[in-house]
């Protein structure tokens, strides 16, 4: 899914499931409502079997979670096997990364973005009003790594929130939300630059993120900031 081992590791550790179970060649995450990334099974060995797919599905059903697999774009064999068992593909997602030094070359203006942990009520409100439910916020609490919340401001108002955590040389930014009425004013860009500045202070050199391919507006922002695509994946699920 991600050839770079540092980014591949940070992708998993900075946004952890509530628990994990092995099912042959798959590792199954229990998300408890925290979204697809933590509620899916992923291949950890190339010698998985169709029986392993059934085992992973059984684990997910025992947790009362929807059967779901996270599959790299270039894993045709697993995609075909899942399709044959009635799984459907959705939510194509790209993984992007940029050098922190490039992002911090333009300093964040004073009073524009802040690193705050634990999150303030206003950050939680911005997340809750967007797509970051309480269950997704619990994922942040589970991350046992250097981490912080981010608060963005514009027009003297709380305008955006995000979460960033790091594992070694890589920081991952998650849960970027901007207040709808205050979008298109650069808030997301300043949150990302603030994440990179915080990550550099912790010793990281790269900042990575995942974005739905359907979110063309966000992707345009990331492209302008200098992020490059490293790979992609999609979710295969069934009822």
From TrEMBL:
SUPFAM superfamilies: Acyl-CoA N-acyltransferases (Nat) (SSF55729). GO terms for molecular function: acyltransferase activity, transferring groups other than amino-acyl groups. PROSITE patterns: GNAT. It comes from the Bacteria. Coiled coil: none annotated. InterPro entries: Acyl_CoA_acyltransferase (IPR016181), GNAT_dom (IPR000182). Keywords: Transferase. Residues 106-239 form the N-acetyltransferase domain. PANTHER family: N-ACETYLTRANSFERASE. This is GCN5-related N-acetyltransferase. It comes from Paracoccus denitrificans (strain Pd 1222). The lineage of its organism: Bacteria, Pseudomonadati, Pseudomonadota, Alphaproteobacteria, Rhodobacterales.
């Amino acid at each position: 899914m991600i050839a770079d081992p540092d980014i591949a590791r940070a992708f998993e550790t900075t946004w952890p499931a509530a628990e994990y179970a092995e099912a042959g060649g798959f590792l199954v995450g229990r998300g408890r409502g925290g979204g697809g990334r933590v509620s899916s099974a992923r291949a950890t060995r190339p010698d998985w079997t169709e029986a392993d797919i059934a085992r992973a599905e059984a684990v997910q059903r025992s947790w009362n979670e929807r059967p779901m697999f996270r599959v790299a774009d270039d894993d045709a064999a697993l995609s075909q096997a899942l399709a044959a068992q009635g799984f459907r593909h959705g939510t194509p997602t790209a993984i992007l990364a940029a050098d922190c030094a490039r992002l911090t070359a333009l300093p964040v203006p004073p009073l524009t973005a802040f690193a705050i942990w634990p999150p303030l009520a206003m950050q939680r409100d911005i997340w809750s009003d967007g797509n970051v439910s309480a269950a997704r916020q619990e994922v942040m609490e589970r991350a046992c790594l250097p981490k912080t919340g981010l608060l963005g401001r514009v027009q003297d108002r709380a305008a955006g929130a995000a979460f960033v955590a790091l594992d070694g040389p890589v920081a991952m930014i998650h849960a970027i939300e901007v207040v709808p009425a205050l979008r298109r004013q650069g808030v997301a860009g300043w949150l990302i630059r603030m994440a990179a500045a915080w990550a550099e202070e912790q010793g990281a050199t790269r900042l990575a993120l995942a974005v739905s391919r359907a979110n063309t507006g966000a992707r345009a922002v990331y492209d302008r900031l200098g992020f490059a695509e490293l790979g992609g994946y999609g979710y295969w699920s069934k009822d």
